[in-house]
């Protein structure tokens, strides 16, 4: 059972990387109406993630592809049961990506404002719906003996799932605003730091309630420890933001999101999807995984390419590490 357990952990790693990296992308997109006072401000905000947003999104493609290859039963149940939700996420991501590419194609103010609204919507929708998806995975679904979801779309929007969606939405928003304060200067940086403080209080309350409910209903010793560590990391991020140490605040906010996602995967182990209607229909790592040979081949591929991906990602962030200012954006337009 070593390889199935290993790939369960790797799937958790890939989704954790996605939520940490694309999480602040979503947060920056959601911050447009709150931090910008004119078009130059909006261009500054968009340029903070301009070189990296598409690279960040590739993590969900890698996670989905690895899930398909290593746990085909799990993949099939999730993508069929959450079909409409996944479709909404996909459409929102397409809307957001198109908006990034097309908003600057015409100087018309109305044209840009419409695409800015689509960036906001395309950031809010996936930030909320990903929380709904993972909250349902942790809570469990009604499954038949063939691991098919037998509930309705409305069943997926239960109170616990909505709470999970609000938690990811708010955590991503704070994560993105802190990233803005890290990557900008002047008035936007000051506004972002203040907004991160106010939004951080709300995110902390909602996130804490979600983690407490999760720990009471589904928690294990490991997941509870990880949840407690997430709370500590969030407090440290909040304090560092108050001190104006954006780098530390961003790092601990990333750690908060990572610990939350890892704790959710820890609540599942050794299952991957609990059947709420009949325990006999519960999907486990053992009965959902691919063959040993498939996992062995995938392991060698991952051993070669995952370090390369991480190195390339790190190199990209290093190249584009400088702050984005209004003067730079204004000069680039002439």
Summarize it:
Helices cover about 80% and strands about 0% of the residues. With about 325 residues, the chain is an all-alpha fold.
If you had to describe this structure to a student in words, what would you say it looks like?
The chain is mainly α and 334 residues long. The protein has one domain. 81% of the residues lie in helices and 1% in strands. It has a two-stranded antiparallel sheet with strand order 1-2. Helix 5 (83-102) packs antiparallel against helix 6, helix 6 (109-139) packs parallel to helix 11 (246-268) and helix 8 (159-183) runs antiparallel to helix 11 (246-268). The longest helix has 34 residues, at 2-35. Keywords: Cell membrane, Electron transport, Heme, Iron, Membrane, Metal-binding, Transmembrane, Transmembrane helix, Transport.
Domain module tally: 1
Overall geometric form: globular
Report the sheet-strand fraction: under 5%
Total helical segments: 14
Oligomeric form of this entry?
single chain
- End-to-end Cα distance, whole Å, is 61 Å
Low-confidence regions: none
Largest β-sheet summary: 2 strands, antiparallel
Total strands: the figure is 2
Q: Helical amount among residues, as a percent range?
A: over 70%
- What does the average pLDDT come to? 92
- Provide the structure class: mainly alpha
Q: Calculate Rg over CA atoms.
A: 20 Å
User: Secondary-structure element order, as H and E?
Assistant: HHHHHHHHHHHEEHHH
Strand order of the largest sheet: 1-2
